[in-house]
TrEMBL record:
UniProt key word Protein biosynthesis: no
Main location: membrane
Gene3D superfamilies: Outer membrane efflux proteins (OEP)
InterPro entries in alphabetical order: MdtP/NodT-like, OMP_efflux
Alphabetically ordered keywords of this record: Coiled coil, Lipoprotein, Membrane, Palmitate, Transmembrane, Transmembrane beta strand
A single cellular component GO annotation: plasma membrane
Coiled-coil ranges (or none): 396-466
One GO MF term attached to the UniProt entry: efflux transmembrane transporter activity
Stated family: Belongs to the outer membrane factor (OMF) (TC 1.B.17) family.
Compartment(s): Cell membrane
Organism superkingdom: Bacteria
Protein name per Swiss-Prot or TrEMBL: RND transporter
Length: 478
């Protein structure tokens, strides 16, 4: 009968708390993300996607593969992200432990002196535990037992917090994949930059040799009074200008090598590479697949999606703060004033069981503000998710257009280089036969050098576009 009354009173109290709190929960409408993407990047609707290739299959240069392997093992930024993943994993254990009962052991010892002329002191003075053995003074206090605390997760507040931690752990794992794709792309782009610089330096040295030979011819012609000193000086200036360019390229080579070494987390050392392979490299044929595949292939999109899911759970956790919480505490053990009586059963047994309902009633501004902030953060993650998806689509679209335009540009520049290379010999022959001015020779050599530089730059941009489209499609992390 007594227990039934306790249950009835507890139910009445719970009803009153629910009524007074649930009626005052602010009404906030969560924002829903837009996941719609165009059906295709153009007229093609082929679902074959280059992003499905593993990076070892996509990059077939053994020197580049070795560099990427080293970077994935040693790169500091990647190792920092790995520790962030470990932190997120530990946060899951923290959240899981919050909704499980907490059980501990407690042991204690002390003493207490009660004034004799008080009701407790008077009772202790006249109390005999056994004949002829009054209670000691001061009174020792010895205790040993177990205790437990548990918050009953009625509204799934603690469980949702644990689920939110899991989503953030998954987001951090996708962050690792995103760093991997960026790292691989950066190593590859710098490697191709290095090959391009090496080839530009080789062309520059060939051009210096051609210009030096032309300078000797001009000097001989001056001795024969066929040209003036002005022509000799102009040819000398051209040779000196070309020679100065090689030091600029050598500096860029040093910086690019150091950048690669930094990505590989090592101090400066030569970068193994095959310069001759650069001119024979043909950019891979890229198959972009469908835009909807970005949602599953791109690590940054999946990370934003997990962060969005975590933010939605945080809103539910914040909303649950408006409802009452039920806590249960219990203890069981022994307590006595003497070691001789500590384990006397049942006289020294101590146990307790209590339940507590706590709900906000007055001054709920902090809870309301926390709930509003959680909802605002959820709205932020929606906008961020949509921004990441939109950016991913444009990255792919831009790189596809770039690949197409660079292919046409490279064909035209190849024809330009061929024409200007032939014109060098023609201009030299005409100059020696006094049918062309020396300025025509100088301009032809300069234009030929610039066109060959531009051809190498275009080839490098083609290779970079191949790297970037592979990254934009979400390839490299698998």
């Amino acid at each position: 009968m007594f227990r039934n009354r306790i249950i009835q009173y507890a139910g009445l109290i719970l009803f009153c708390l629910l009524y007074t709190t649930a009626c005052k929960v602010p009404s906030l409408v969560p924002k829903t993300e837009n996941k719609k993407l165009p059906g295709s990047y153009g007229s093609s609707e082929d679902s074959t996607n280059t992003a499905q290739l593993k990076w070892r299959e996509f990059y077939n240069d053994p020197n580049l593969v070795a560099l990427i392997d080293t970077a994935l093992k040693n790169n500091q930024e990647l190792n920092v992200v790995l520790q962030e993943i470990e932190i997120s994993r530990n946060e899951i254990s923290v959240r899981r432990g919050e909704y499980l009962p907490f059980v501990g052991l407690r042991a204690g010892a002390g003493f207490d002196k009660v004034p004799r002329y008080t009701n407790i002191g008077a009772m202790e003075a006249t109390t005999d535990i056994k004949p002829g053995k009054p209670m000691p003074e001061p009174v020792p206090d010895l205790g040993l037992g177990a205790y437990a605390r548990w918050e009953v997760d009625i509204w799934h507040k603690l469980r949702n917090a644990q689920k939110s931690a899991v989503k953030r752990y998954l987001a951090s794992s996708e962050g690792r994949n995103f760093v991997i794709t960026n790292l691989i792309a950066e190593v590859a782009n710098n490697y191709f930059e290095l090959l391009a610089l090496d080839n530009q330096l080789a062309i520059l040295r060939q051009n210096i040799e051609i210009q030096t030979n032309a300078l000797e011819i001009v000097r001989l012609q001056k001795q024969a009074t066929r040209v003036t000193e002005l022509a000799v000086r102009r040819f000398e200036a051209q040779v000196l200008n070309t020679r100065s360019l090689q030091y600029d390229i050598q500096q860029r080579i040093t910086e690019t090598e150091n950048r690669i070494n930094f990505l590989l987390a090592r101090y400066p050392q030569p970068i193994a590479r095959n310069d001759d392979a650069f001119n024979t490299m043909i950019p891979k044929t890229i198959q972009a697949g469908l835009p909807s595949q970005l949602l599953t292939n791109r690590p940054d999109i999946r990370r934003a999606e997990f962060e969005l899911a975590a933010a939605k759970l945080d809103v539910q956790v914040a909303r649950a703060q408006f409802y009452p919480s039920l806590g249960i505490s219990a203890s069981l053990g022994y307590r006595a004033f003497s070691p001789a009586y500590l384990f006397s059963t049942p006289e020294s047994i101590l146990y307790s069981l209590a339940g507590e309902l706590v709900g906000p009633l007055v001054n709920r501004r902090a809870i309301t503000a926390t709930y509003a902030n959680a909802n605002a953060r959820q709205t932020q993650t929606v906008y961020n998710y949509e921004r990441v998806v939109l950016n991913a689509y444009f990255e792919v679209a831009n790189q596809l257009a770039k690949i197409n335009n660079l292919e046409r540009s490279y064909d035209l520049k190849s024809q330009e280089v061929q024409a200007l290379t032939q014109s060098i010999g023609i201009s030299n022959d005409l100059f020696q036969s006094t049918r062309a001015d020396y300025m025509e020779v100088l301009l032809t050599q300069r234009d030929a050098l610039e066109s060959r530089f531009e051809l190498i730059e275009t080839k490098k941009q083609q290779l970079n576009a191949m790297v970037n489209i592979y990254q934009a499609l979400g390839g490299g992390w698998n």
